[in-house]
Design a protein that fits this description.
4-stranded mixed beta sheet; UDP-n-acetylglucosamine1-carboxyvinyl-transferase, Chain; alpha/beta; elongated
Length: about 425
C-alpha cells in the first residue's frame, strides 16, 4: 500500500494539461461490447479504474491492445457472460457492462459492484430502465442475473432521478434494441454527450444527448470507429481550486471551459481572479477571497465530485461557508480528516458548515474515497509542515500519478510504499 508525503507552503507555476475523463472512458470502454468491430479510444487516462475496466473486459474475452493513451478494443471473441467479483468489487462502473451484454448477447451475470463508500448508490434505476426494454432480472448470491427472451425492444423510460450511470446503461442497451427508445429525465453530463457522440460514430442513431430527453432509434449492428475521449472536467476543476488555494499564477489547459461553468461562477463570486480562454483557464492571485453557499446538484449544477475540494478552499478564505450535499448521503467522510489538518467543519444532516480563516497544519490523515483523497492533497500543499496521506489507492482511481502531474508544477509530493 502506498502513501503520499506532502510538503506544505507549496509553490505552483506554469501550466498543466488535463488528460481524458475517467467518467467518460469507462462507459466508452464498455460500449466496445456492442460491436464485433474495432473501437479505438484515444486520450485514455492511466488510472486504476481504467485498468480495472480493461481487466474486466478482457475477462469477458474482449481483445484489448493498449499503448500509451490509446486502446484498441474488439469484442468479436466474447464468450464469457459472468463478471468476476474480484474485479467488480473494486469499481462501481462495472455495472455499465450490463446494458451492452443484455443488448448484444441476451444475458449477463454481474456481481453487485463496489467502488467508493460514499452512499448507497443503488442500481435500481438501471434495472428498472432495462426492464422497460424487456429484460428480466433476479438477484442471487450477490449477483445480478439478467436475461432477454429474444431481443430488447424500445420503449419510453422515465428515470426517477437523472442518474448518469443509468442513463449510460440504458442508452447503450437501446442502441441495438428493436424500434425507438426515449429516455426522459436523462442525465445531461458532458460524459453522456461524449458517449452518444462515439456511439453515433459507430453507426448508432441517438438524438438529444446533453438534454433531459434522449431518443435512440435501434440499429442492427455497429461499425469500427475511432474516438478521442473528452478531457476530465473534475480533474481540471481540482487543479483550478489548487491554484486558487495557493494564490498563484497558473494555467489549466486542454479542457472545455463550458463544462466548468458552475465551478467558475462560484469561484468568481468568492473573489477568484480567473480568465477563460477557448481551451484553457488562467488563474491569477486574488486579494480577498470570501465564503459562499453552495449546493451540489446534477449537471449543469455544481458537481458533487468537486465538493470535497471546494470545502478545503472554503476553510482558508475569509468568512464562513456552507455546502449542501444533495447527491450522495454519505459524502462528508473527508470532514474529520480536514479537521485533523486544522479545518473547523461541522455537519448537520446534509449540510456542512465551514468556518473560514483557518490555517492548515500538516498531520497524518487517511483517505476514505476518491474525491476525499484529493481534498487532503489540496489541504496538504497549503499546510504548514508535512502531511502524510495514507490509503492513496483511492486517489489513483481518478488522478494520474498526482505526485508527477501536479508535483511537476511546484508542489513537493512524494509517493512511498509502506
Amino acid at each position: 500500500m502506498d502513501r503520499l508525503i506532502i510538503s506544505g507552503n507549496a509553490k505552483l507555476y506554469g501550466s498543466i494539461n488535463v488528460k481524458g475523463s475517467k467518467n467518460s472512458a469507462l462507459p466508452l470502454m464498455a460500449a466496445s461490447l456492442l460491436s464485433n468491430k474495432d473501437l479505438i479510444l484515444q486520450n485514455l487516462p492511466n488510472l486504476e479504474d481504467v485498468n480495472n475496466m480493461q481487466r474486466l473486459l478482457q475477462a469477458y474475452g474482449v481483445i484489448a491492445d493498449r499503448e500509451d493513451s490509446t486502446i484498441h478494443l474488439n469484442a468479436k471473441k466474447v464468450i464469457n457472460r459472468i463478471a468476476d467479483y474480484d474485479v467488480v468489487r473494486k469499481m462501481r462502473a462495472s455495472i455499465l457492462i450490463l446494458g451492452p451484454l443484455l443488448s448484444k448477447f441476451g444475458e449477463a451475470k454481474i456481481s453487485l459492484p463496489g467502488g467508493c463508500a460514499i452512499g448507497n448508490r443503488p442500481i435500481d434505476i438501471h434495472i428498472q430502465g432495462l426492464r422497460k426494454l424487456g429484460a428480466t432480472f433476479e438477484i442471487e448470491n450477490g449477483f445480478v442475473i439478467g436475461r432477454v427472451k429474444d431481443s430488447l425492444v424500445g420503449n419510453n423510460i422515465k428515470l426517477s432521478f437523472p442518474s448518469v450511470g443509468a442513463t449510460e446503461n440504458i442508452l447503450m442497451a437501446a442502441v441495438l434494441a428493436i424500434g425507438k427508445t426515449v429516455i426522459i429525465n436523462a442525465a445531461k453530463e458532458p460524459e453522456i454527450t461524449d458517449l452518444a457522440k462515439c456511439l453515433n460514430l459507430m453507426g448508432a442513431k441517438i438524438n438529444g444527448a446533453g438534454t433531459d430527453i434522449i431518443e435512440i432509434e435501434g440499429v442492427e449492428s455497429l461499425n469500427k470507429t475511432s474516438h478521442k475521449i473528452l478531457s476530465d472536467r473534475i480533474v481540471a476543476g481540482t487543479f483550478i481550486i489548487a491554484a486558487v488555494m495557493l494564490n498563484k499564477n497558473f494555467k489549466v489547459c486542454e479542457i472545455n471551459p463550458k463544462h466548468l461553468d458552475s465551478l467558475i461562477n462560484i469561484l468568481k463570486k468568492m473573489g477568484a481572479n480567473i480568465k477563460i480562454k477557448n481551451t484553457s483557464i488562467e488563474i491569477s492571485p486574488s486579494k480577498n477571497l470570501k465564503g459562499i453557499l453552495v449546493k451540489t446538484s446534477p449537471y449543469p449544477g455544481f458537481p458533487t465530485d468537486l465538493q470535497a475540494q471546494m470545502m478545503a478552499l472554503m476553510s482558508i478564505v475569509k468568512g464562513n461557508s456552507q455546502i449542501k450535499e444533495t447527491i450522495f448521503e454519505n459524502r462528508f467522510m473527508h470532514v474529520p480528516e480536514l479537521n485533523r489538518l486544522g479545518a473547523n467543519i461541522k455537519i448537520i444532516k446534509d449540510v456542512a458548515y465551514i468556518q473560514g480563516n483557518r490555517k492548515f497544519v500538516g498531520a497524518q490523515v487517511m483517505a476514505s474515497d476518491l474525491r476525499a483523497s484529493v481534498s487532503l492533497v489540496l489541504a496538504g500543499i497549503c499546510a504548514k509542515g508535512k502531511t502524510v496521506i495514507n490509503r492513496v489507492y483511492h486517489l489513483d482511481r481518478g488522478y494520474e500519478k498526482i505526485e508527477k502531474t501536479l508535483g511537476n508544477q511546484g508542489p513537493k509530493i512524494k509517493r512511498e510504499k509502506i
